[in-house]
Amino acid sequence: MSTHRIAVIAGDGIGREVMPEGLRVLAAAADRFDLDLQFTTIDWANCDYYLQHGEMMPADWFEQLKGFDALYFGAAGWPDKVPDHISLWGSLLKFRRGFDQYVNLRPVRLMPGVPCPLANRKVGDIDFYVVRENTEGEYSAVGGRMFEGTERETVVQESIFTRKGVDRILKYAFDLAQRRPKKHLTSATKSNGMAISMPYWDERVEAMAASYPEVRCDKYHIDILCARFVLSPERFDVVVASNLFGDILSDLGPACAGTIGIAPSANLNPERDFPSLFEPVHGSAPDIYGRNIANPIGMIWSGAMMLDFLGQGDAAHGAAHDAILRAIERVLVDGPLTPDMGGAASTSDVGLAIVDAL
Amino acid sequence: MSTHRIAVIAGDGIGREVMPEGLRVLAAAADRFDLDLQFTTIDWANCDYYLQHGEMMPADWFEQLKGFDALYFGAAGWPDKVPDHISLWGSLLKFRRGFDQYVNLRPVRLMPGVPCPLANRKVGDIDFYVVRENTEGEYSAVGGRMFEGTERETVVQESIFTRKGVDRILKYAFDLAQRRPKKHLTSATKSNGMAISMPYWDERVEAMAASYPEVRCDKYHIDILCARFVLSPERFDVVVASNLFGDILSDLGPACAGTIGIAPSANLNPERDFPSLFEPVHGSAPDIYGRNIANPIGMIWSGAMMLDFLGQGDAAHGAAHDAILRAIERVLVDGPLTPDMGGAASTSDVGLAIVDAL
Ligand SMILES: CC(C)[C@H](C(=O)O)[C@@H](O)C(=O)O
Ligand SMILES: CC(C)[C@H](C(=O)O)[C@@H](O)C(=O)O
Q: Where is the Isopropylmalate dehydrogenase-like domain (chains A, B) (predicted)?
């Protein structure tokens, strides 16, 4: 039985509240499935640390973290303390790039017990993956200002796409689609408006599609694709998108499936050269912090994805993942639920209930 | 009674099918409200013209069009004939920039009779405006490729925001919010990811907000904003956004309100230095072209917006706008409807019915 060394980085706001529940469930799963998880708490990568040190993380963050098998991450950001672009570029976005976690994998699934904001949808109707490029593209801090403070002020920001960056995310997405029963891949584009980057993206999709004759491949401009998430979510199987479009789709998708409070994500370095990172899709939500009402399910589901990835197809790990998912489903149906889902339970009530169901 | 000179540009695909219905309704409204509309048909700005001439429009398009009071536009693009970025950058996007139509105004409204894809929403619950910047930002053809065709291939595209461009769209949006009963403005951002352009956008929003103390102003990152369109559309009143974010929100909004088939838009040069352009939100939909089943209501509603804008607050024009809206509502409730709305009527059946209702 191999030991998995996991860095626990709660971050800011409700990240700190949902993390204990994630750990509680992971500990229970480790117990039941005889997994060896070793947790190390990291108390930086949060805005209070920034206020004390002028940086979100110590200079040797990379050295400190690179030996872990995974990072279990809560959420970062507290705009009243530190502007978002400073806190996020100083933490989460550094992890994604520094550890080359180029795949952001986000399941979108209508779960039993969850009221769907879309009319007449039932469990099974919404069940797909958003595969988001996670290191380049529109997320950039390259550019600047000219004529600052004057009427002529002009701000330029670059989006940067590389063949390596585009091809590897497409390959991951096509491989995933190939393994799924429907074998259907949808690519998000906006080549009619963003006239340089997106035609390139489309070109690489076409080139990659040639190697996957069994995968049915289509593309939509991001505007109409968002509309279709609402109007016909049953159409989708694997949706591949650039960094920004993937970000949008992976909040919109979970919203269509009821709530982003339960949505998980995996920031993967598929080659395992570096630790991968697992975090809920929701953010740090300073407005509800401190009341113990945050929904811990996104954090817990992300923990299940972590076990699955760490196990690399090993049966016990796969079983642990599935058991956590079943326990989540049970609690979604029977309660207790946090207020965001219409219940009156606390964050820890839900965590405890999922452990029980396990 | 002043004459309004209107250039009629059907464009491609279903643009050619919905245009006659738009004109039919405008003619009826002109008749009833004693307006003087003079139409001139423009047979370029379409992909067939491109195939013949190697350009979407003649070199003197600007000279030919600049004297009109408005452009009534169908849709452009036919990807099997001409790649989208060529057809759109060669037509619609040239109009928007050349004629400095810097406001793209798009009402999002749940109309009577339209089944809503969101559960438990009724008429009145969704009623807001997307105010989209329409000339700069992420829509750019500035940038290029390096190491073309090699493993190192790198593609760079610039987003460009100017103080003039940002401030004037914000001013338009704040003015609009100020005139609405709720006086609520929401700004779309993504300053946590796009670390140069969007913090600038936020800064200008804050500066502008200082001049509008009565307007309640908030901001959301685009990912969570899309989620909220689905989860709580009743929160919104005026939503202001950059070119790309506005594009996304103004397809997603109408989808949440039932269909983009009926959604209108106004590309405005508020100073009236140049003609403004009125077009449905939907595109040219080559897949359904030629069957006379396209929904003409987006085109017709855009015509109503055109009358309103041309009249500059004149009573007869305002009455004509309102009467067309009432006629649309009547037909949405009583039919006939095109197949996209569950009916079996043709494009022209719907146009004729709206004329009757008028
Ligand atoms: C056709 C396309 C270039 C256009 C845009 O993205 O602006 C359309 O989607 C719109 O919303 O008017
Ligand atoms: C917090 C933010 C930088 C982040 C992103 O945009 O990637 C978040 O929205 C996400 O989806 O993980």
A: 5-354
Encode pLDDT of A59-115 as tens digits: 999 999 999 999 999 999 999 999 988 999 999 999 999 999 999 999 999 999 999
Q: How far is the CA of B154 from the centre of ligand 1 (A)?
A: 26
A161 lies in a domain?
A: yes
pLDDT of residue A1: 65
Question: Would an 8 Å CB–CB cutoff place B146 in contact with chain A?
Answer: no
pLDDT in tens, B17-64: 999 999 999 999 999 999 999 999 999 999 999 999 999 999 999 999
Amino acid at B31: D
CA of residue B13 to ligand 1 center, whole Å:
15
On whether any CB of chain A is under 8 Å from the CB of B135, the answer is no
- Is position B110 within any domain? no
pLDDT of residue A208: 98
Residue A187: domain span: 116-126+156-257
User: Same domain for B309 and B248?
Assistant: no
> Domain boundary residue among B209, B232, B257?
B257
Does residue A279 sit in the same domain as residue A226?
no
Residue A313 to residue B78: CA distance in whole angstroms: 45
Mean pLDDT across the stretch B156-165? 97
Ligand 1 pocket residues where CB is under 6 Å: A 192-193, 223; B 77, 88, 92, 247, 283
Query: What's chain B's length in residues?
Result: 358
Q: Are residues A163 and A82 both part of a single domain?
A: no
Mutational pocket test of ligand 1: of B71, B92, B131, the residue with most ligand atoms within 8 Å of the beta carbon: B92
Output the CA–CA distances (angstroms, integers) from residue B135 to A8, A357, B143, B161, B194, in the order listed: 45, 55, 17, 10, 19
Task: Look at residue B141 in the predicted model and tell me its pLDDT.
Answer: 87
Residues in chain A: 358
pLDDT higher than 90, residue B2: no
B158: part of which helix (H) or strand (E)?
Answer: strand B154-162
Interface check for B283 against chain A (CB to CB < 8 A): the answer is yes
Is the pLDDT at A309 greater than 90, yes or no? yes
Domain total in chain A? 2
User: How many A from CA of A193 to the centre of ligand 1?
Assistant: 7
Using the predicted structure, report yes or no on whether residue B1 has a pLDDT greater than 80.
no
For residue A305, is pLDDT > 70? yes
pLDDT tens column, A157-169:
999 999 999 999 9
Instruction: Give the residue-averaged pLDDT of B322-336.
Output: 97
CATH number, domain containing residue B354: 3.40.718.10
Give the range among B97-111, B198-212, B311-325 with minimum mean pLDDT: B311-325
C-alpha of residue B288 to centroid of ligand 2, in Å: 37
User: Which of B156, B195, B256 lies at the smallest CB-CB distance from A160?
Assistant: B156
In this structure, the strands spanning B103-109 and B264-268 are antiparallel
**To the nearest whole number, what is the mean pLDDT of chain A?**
96
As for ligand 2, residues whose beta carbon falls within 6 Å of it are: A 77, 88, 92, 247, 281, 283; B 192-193, 223
Looking from the CA of residue A250, the nearest atom of ligand 2 is 11
Query: Residue B326's Cα: distance from chain center in Å?
Result: 20
Instruction: Please identify, by atom number, the ligand 1 atom nearest to the C-alpha of residue B88.
Output: 3
